[in-house]
Amino acid sequence: MKTVNTSIIFFLLSISLLGCTEKTIQKKGEDVTMLAGKNILMIIAKSNFRDEEFEVPYQLFKKEGAKIIIASSSLNISKGMLGKTIKPDALLSQINIDNFNAVIFIGGSGASEYWNDPTAHNIAKNAIIKGKILAAICIAPVTLANAGILSGKKATVFSSEIGPLRAKGAILSNKDVEIDGNIITASGPTAAFKFGETIIKELCKK
Fold first, then answer.
1. pTM of the full predicted structure?
2. CA–CA gap between residue 41 and residue 112 (Å, rounded)
3. Each residue of 42-55: pLDDT tens digit?
């Protein structure tokens, strides 16, 4: 009988323990993606969302097997600041937070429509209450701040909106992406990839 190389065994065990640090794990000849079974809600403005802030994380989540629902205040086709068009799957008013593992507010100039929107505020508050990942990028963290969620929390935001976050008690960070508990914020379009990666890593801990 051939002896089993112990170094191979330790290598295989190390892979199994890496979990979310590896993009995929081979099992019975199939790719097991990191976000299989995870449901993600991405919230965009009815117009003028920021294209790459949506598209870059969306493609990362899709690649890792997540189910993604796109919600907005309108079911009409939304056009991004750079020309991308998206047909939302659901209205914000129809969302049941229990169905999702993560809620993400996408930025762009149109995202200001949610800054003082009670429905958006309730979604954000319920996400925190129920232990979901809550994320926002660019100017969208203002929605979280106005919902009362960022008081005493570390957060980052697009430079034009530092004042509103500080006024609501947020602890401002100069990082591209900031994490405080289940809250993830990012500063803008150039942080889109890191934003998506960070959300994936945090979801994998759940």
1. 0.86
2. 18
3. 999 999 999 999 99
